[in-house]
Amino acid sequence: MSFLDKAKDFADKHDEQVDQGLDKAGDQIDDRTGNKYSDKIDSGVDQAQSRTGAGDTTAPQQQP
Questions:
Q1: For 48-64, what is each residue's pLDDT tens digit?
Q2: Are 53 and 15 in contact (CB under 8 A)?
Q3: What is the DSSP letter of 57?
Q4: Domain limits of the chain?
C-alpha cells in the first residue's frame, strides 16, 4: 500500500477532521494574504472538501 493510498484511506475514515483542517488552512492563507483573495481561497477549500470522504461535513445540512 503506497503513501497515497494510505492518505486516501485516512481521509475517508476521518472526513470531519480533514474538512476542519482544510478550513483552518484556508483561514491561515486568508490571514497571510490580507483577505485579498478570500473568494478564491473559499472556493478552493470548498472544492477540496467536496472531493474528500463524504463531501463537505462543515456545510450546514439541508432539511428535506
A1: 888 876 665 665 555 45
A2: yes
A3: S
A4: 3-49
Q: For residue 35, what is its C-alpha cell?
A: 483577505
Measuring CA to CA, which residue among 34, 55, 54 is closest to residue 45?
Answer: 55
**Which residues are CB-contacts of 1 (< 8 A; sequence separation ≥ 6)?**
9
Of 54, 60, 4, 48, residue with least CA distance to 23: 48
Is 45 exposed, middle or buried (CB count within 10 Å of its CB: 0-12, 13-18, 19+)? buried
What is the reported pTM? 0.70
For residue 51, what are the contacts with CB-CB under 8 A and spacing of at least 6? none
With a CB cutoff of 8 Å and minimum separation 6, the contacts of 25 are 45
The sign of the dihedral angle between the CA atoms of 42, 47, 50, 53 is negative
